[in-house]
Amino acid sequence: MASSPSRVTIISALARFCLFFLFLILTVGLIHQVLARPKSRSKTYPQMRAGAPFKIAIFADLHYGENGWTDWGPRQDVNSTRVMSTVLDAETPDFVIYLGDVITANNMPIANASLYWDQAISPTTSRGIPFASVFGNHDDAPFEWPTEWFSAPGIPQLVCPAAKSTCSGEEACSFRGTPRLELMKHELDQNVPSFSQNGPTELWPSVSNYVLPVSSSASPKTPVVYLYFLDSGGGSYPEIISSAQVDWFQNKSAEINPDSRVPELIFWHIPSQAYKNVAPRFGIHQPCVGLINKESVAPQEAETGIMNLLVKRPSVKAIFVGHNHGLDWCCPYEKLWLCFARHTGYGGYGSWARGARIVEITQQPFSVKSWIRMEDNVVHSRVDLSS
Ligand SMILES: *[C@@H]1O[C@H](CO)[C@@H](O)[C@H](O)[C@H]1NC(C)=O
Ligand SMILES: *[C@@H]1O[C@H](CO)[C@@H](O)[C@H](O)[C@H]1NC(C)=O
Ligand SMILES: *[C@@H]1O[C@H](CO)[C@@H](O)[C@H](O)[C@H]1NC(C)=O
């Protein structure tokens, strides 16, 4: 006759169940990560057209989807689409860079976030222009506001730490935000001419860390310039370029451009602290070039070494950031230039007129020139960044 199971066997069965459950979750997580990797793309990179400069339009701080539940929110996005269309038609760039804060993901479920992301890239994709994106602090933001603020379909899913709650009961649940990886996966899964990348997994949750060579028209294997993209954080984690990213940059640049022979341009969203050192006071004067200097630089939280590395590389010509909507200047810093883009979107704070920074690269002789094209088609703040 079988005796009833002892207390010990129940506890050990429970423990085994919890272990099994944990194992299951880890496995599912792993499979999910593997699936989340971008499909292996053919190794084609942007290439210059014969006899023509390579022109890049930078769209910064579009903030699509901001207050999507009001009527002015969507109207702003219509305006931002108009700004991009004007710039694209006037400049006909070869490439577009979305320099972060493409959307305002605060309090936005993933379905909406990818919808707004699509809207933001559509002026570029509908013209068949290749592009790349880098994340800003608003693209992946935690939920801050009470649920009463949302319409029923807008209330995000509640996530509870499943493994822990099975075993220990009480655990804080939180609303599911829109992680960078999912946004990037969405962009890469679309059939669009995107050159964005997920970056090395060891740098996650810092996602958009990658480099694109722009190759010469004559030979696809000869890089004319390297475009580096770094994720300056924000949203669900600190606003910083970490020492792991610095290591990555050091390794990568040593691997692909060991003797600094090929010029390099750097793109990220939040200005580094060095921008504070060069910020002009009271207006903008030589050697700085720009039109608006209306607020103080809002820099990253700390400096972990990326600037030291960049100033030591003679190949690095300029860094481009967004984030501060009221600044559009370029100022020299040591041997390179620190540039702001121009606020392109109607979303986000500030009502300074909208525009886009243009960067034009020529091969022989090598030069990097830049200017700002406004919504009303006025062009200003021309500057030679290779001098
Ligand atoms: C859209 O743009 C027009 C023209 O610049 C402006 O008058 C209007 O206020 C903008 N609307 C919103 C909601 O930003
Ligand atoms: C998300 O999209 C749905 C359907 O389009 C809309 O009803 C809801 O208001 C949106 N929520 C947010 C937070 O934008
Ligand atoms: C950089 O290279 C060193 C030496 O090869 C290696 O140990 C390290 O893991 C690399 N770091 C990154 C972030 O790739």
UniProtKB/TrEMBL annotation:
GO molecular function, one term: hydrolase activity, acting on ester bonds
InterPro entries: Calcineurin-like_PHP, Metallo-depent_PP-like, PAP14/16/28/29
Transmembrane segments: none
Domain Calcineurin-like phosphoesterase: 54-325
GO terms under cellular component: cytoplasm
Name of the featured protein: Putative inactive purple acid phosphatase 16
